[in-house]
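seq as requested:
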Amino acid sequence: MKNNNEARAIVTIIGKDRVGILAAAAVEIAKMGANVITVSQNVNSSLFTMMMEIDIENMTGSCDDLSKNISSRLKDMKVSVMNSEIFNSMHTI
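struct tokens:
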């Protein structure tokens, strides 16, 4: 595994809380050969938010493919997957 961000992506999921959100996302991540590095999740007044950092060095397919796969399992959730370099650039002043 690389120690830099070039082989990492950020996955965010937002929506109404229900059972199995984390599991559904993890299954799709594993199917594509990526690996979960960190997970942060919160539920506030039935609103579920989660952010994951994943290692995509050995992932088959693109971040867009992964986003579509997770979204197909979590149809009622807002799902975003982006390369960490893009994510970090967007949040740098």
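The longest helix spans residues 21-31.
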